Amino acid sequence: MISVLDLGLGNMLSVIRALDRLGARPRLVSNAEDLRLDRDVVVPGVGSFDAGMASLRERRLDHRLKTIAADGSARILGLCLGMQLMFEASTEGLSSGLGIVGGEVVRLQPQGSMRVPHMGWNHVTVSRETEVTERLPKPTRFYFAHSYYAIPQDSSIVTLSAEHGLTFCASFEMDGLIGAQFHPEKSHRYGLEFLKGFTRK
Question: Cβ distance 78 to 180 under 8 Å?
C-alpha cells in the first residue's frame, strides 16, 4: 500500500487513479498520525511553494516526511510541486523547504521561443540508469506544467534531464527519495512505466 498526501493543492485524485491502475493500493492521507513510517509516500502538488509548505505544516506532515526520509525504511516520491518542496528553498517564496534534498528551486527564464510557464509534452534524456529509469521506453516524453525548476546541490543525483531554454533536472533519485518535475499521472504509458518503477511492480 502507498500513501498519497492530500495537501488540498490539486492533482492527488489523478495520482490515485494512476496508482490504482498499477494495483498499488493507494491510500489518501491528510495528517501526520495516518502517515506510517514503513509505507512508501507520494507527495503530489500544484501551486506555489509557500502554499505547499504551509499545507504540510498545517497538517504536521513536514516533520513526518523528514522522519521517513531519515529512517530510510520507506521511499518518498515528490511530483511537480511535491518534488520542489523536498529542497531547501525556492526563489518563488519566502518559506524554507523540507530540506531533505540539498539545493534550491529557481524560476525558468523566457528565452527566444521558449515561454514560461513550460506547459505540455517534452522529451527527457536519461542521465543515470536506475530501477525507475531503466524500464522507460526510448525515446520517452512526459507532460510538464511548471515555471520553476530544481537545482540539486549534488548533480550526480539527477536521473532524467529535459530542455526548455536550458537543460534542467526532470527527475532525481537519492537514498530512497525520488522527484519528478513532470506529471506522470498525465503522461499516459510513459508515466505509468515511471510509476511502476516506484511501486516496484
Answer: yes
188 annotated active-site: no
Choose the catalytic residue: 118, 146, 169, 185.
185
Give pLDDT < 70 ranges for the chain.
Answer: 201
Catalytic residue among 118, 146, 164, 183: 183
CB atoms inside a 10 Å sphere around CB 81:
28
Give tens-digit pLDDT for 32-50: 999 999 999 999 988 999 9
pLDDT, position 113: 79
What lies within 8 Å, CB to CB, of 194 at 6+ separation is: 132, 136, 142, 171, 180, 184, 187
Residue 183 falls in the annotated catalytic set: yes
Q: Is 80 a catalytic residue?
A: yes
